[in-house]
Design brief:
This protein has one domain. The two termini are 32 Å apart. The strands form 3 sheets. Strands 1, 4, 5, 6, 8, 11, 12, 14 and 17 form a 9-stranded antiparallel beta sheet that branches. A 6-stranded antiparallel beta sheet has the order 2-3-7-13-9-10, with no helix packed on it. The chain has a two-stranded antiparallel sheet with strand order 15-16. Helices cover 0% and strands 55% of the residues. It is an all-beta fold. The structure holds 2-acetamido-2-deoxy-beta-D-glucopyranose (NAG) (2 copies). One 2-acetamido-2-deoxy-beta-D-glucopyranose binds next to strand 3 and strand 7. Keywords: Signal.
Length: 242
């Protein structure tokens, strides 16, 4: 099996990664801390108006982690954005929406607390960006996701995913093409922060063509709610000097 899923924090506001010890006993050498956590510490933009709304079940939130176990060490954590949705139709040939997110990261020890001496340094952008979204696009409609990461003191790094209609309503996970794969290391071991802007643009290149990008809808307490399009942020680690 290529993928293992980290602990699924589900609807909770935090995301906690837990490696699987039985996979470390044999097989490829893996480089990862005992456990780790990502939190969303800031959100801005029309695509994420719900920062701090802890009462909302389907708020902008971390959802799940996944990673390879074949030695390639590709890790993703996903973040759901219920309000990142856009559509076009007669009279509206283009529509876009965006959100800016800051994540904080912390290494955790066996007790679930940050260790006094962290052992790993997080490196962002191991394998571009993934996006799980629901597309309903007529012929002539194109959806584009643009992910701009802002590493401190470096040039921004941009990933894109383009989906062209016709696509009948379906939820799909895409990876951005890995063109110029840039990784950047956090300045310190055991902690870090990743800031990025997510922008969705839907364009009808044919007059009056319809298209919508959203996420799966789920029933919750008798109401239909958007689960949230889920951005997969990729990373891995390097061992810190002893
Ligand atoms: C993440 O959030 C939890 C719960 O609010 C908090 O206990 C923890 O310290 C936070 N960790 C980071 C790395 O921000
Ligand atoms: C890494 O990115 C490439 C290029 O988009 C993709 O084909 C591959 O599936 C990705 N790997 C994982 C483990 O997601």
């Amino acid at each position: 099996m290529l993928f293992t899923f980290g602990a699924i924090a589900g609807l909770a506001g935090i995301a906690l990664g837990l490696p699987h010890p039985w996979e470390e006993a044999s097989g490829p050498i893996r480089i990862l801390p005992h456990s780790w956590v990502f939190n969303i510490t800031s959100l801005s933009g029309p695509g994420c108006p719900d920062f701090g709304d802890t009462a909302a079940v389907f708020s902008t939130r971390p959802t799940f982690g996944m990673n390879t176990v074949d030695g390639s060490e590709i890790y993703y954590w996903h973040f759901a954005y219920p309000n990142l949705r856009a559509s076009v139709g007669p009279g509206a040939a283009t529509s876009s929406i965006w959100c800016e997110t800051t994540l904080t990261y912390a290494e955790l020890d066996r007790l679930g607390t940050p260790p006094a001496k962290p052992e790993y340094r997080l490196k962002a952008h191991k394998n571009g960006t993934a996006m799980i979204a629901t597309y309903d696009l007529e012929d002539g409609v194109v959806a584009e996701w643009k992910f701009t990461y802002y590493p401190a003191g470096k040039e921004p790094v941009v990933d894109t995913i383009t989906v062209a209609g016709p696509v009948s309503p379906t939820s799909i996970r895409h990876n951005s093409p890995v063109t110029e794969l840039a990784q950047w290391a956090m300045p310190d071991c055991g902690t870090g922060s990743i800031r990025y802007r997510t922008e969705l643009t839907v364009t009808a290149k044919k007059d009056g063509a319809r298209g919508a990008v959203s996420s799966d809808q789920v029933q919750y307490e008798g109401k239909s709610e958007f689960y949230g399009a889920q951005q997969g942020v990729s990373y891995d680690w390097e061992k810190c000097a002893a």
